[in-house]
Amino acid sequence: MRFCVDSRWSAVRVGVTVRRGARYWRRLGSTLAVCGMFSVSLGLASAQGLSWEQLAEGMVVTTWDPGTRCDGQVPRLFMVKIDPERFRFSTYHFRDEGLPAPLTIKEWQQRTRASVLFNAGLFREDFSYMGWLFKNGRSLGSKRHPLWKGLFVAEPVGTGLPKARVLDLAVEHFSPDDPAYHEAAQSLMLLDRSGKPRVRRTEQRAHQTVVVEDRAGSLVVIKTAGEVTMWELAVCLQEGLPGIAHAMAMDGGASSDLLISSDLPGVREAGRDPSLWQRLVDGNGVEHITLPAVIGVAARDVARQR
User: Fold this and answer.
1) Rounded to the nearest 5°, which phi and psi values hold at 79?
2) What is the number of domains present in the chain?
3) What is the pTM of this model?
4) 3-state SS assignment for residue 234
5) Could you say which DSSP state residue 273 is in?
6) Is residue 12 one of the residues assigned to a domain?
7) Per-residue pLDDT tens digits for 62-82
8) N or C: which end of the chain has fewer CB within 10 A?
9) Which residue range is the domain that position 152 belongs to?
């Protein structure tokens, strides 16, 4: 099963590859023109002069086409920047939800009502999660993966910690017996704080979902608009977006998926046909595979915290 997106100069073209049992694939298409409406100052600001479009207070989106800057090897990137002070991150697994089977990302959104959803880390054939996965401070039964050093964490137990961040388990500690965060999902480290890629050079190309912590403390979810090796993507991000503190890679290939709710104010107020958004990032118009685990993003009640 594979979620496919091909980039074009003026629009992003969407397709889907689906595998059911024996491998076969089918491709569908639709287009979405994504253009920035204004620029904002971000930890990811770079010489590229990224232009971001606001979806809600504390959430903006953009696309970046690295082009020749990354030797033409990296496709267009769709990025959602989220302020953890205004948005809460939550992990979900279908078994913990009492469901008989995994859901598509659209079905997850209907169940959770999250503003943004993206696929979590890797999973086995029986849909069990490969690595630590925590929900509300309790383990969902998975064990630490001995090799993967990336850990997305959110919702600190105590005060004084960032609301959400990416941990590098090679140099930072996380205790499963006394977790400092309620939510956690383990996967591969892509870039560390020194800017070093933490993945091997291989020829394997796939669509990728990346979670970035930028130097301003925001979280950025990146969805590639085409297939790329993890090494090429890591080097391109390190060279092209110097505002990145470090990054981890979630599951790629067939499971790489991202949804943005059409209920967000910026989507409604942009004056575009909402279906254009839905075909790329809202689960409509294309067929998506089922995902056993996802991470959802929902607005906080900021006023209540004051």
Assistant:
1) -125, 135
2) 1
3) 0.81
4) helix
5) -
6) no
7) 889 998 889 889 998 999 999
8) C
9) 35-305
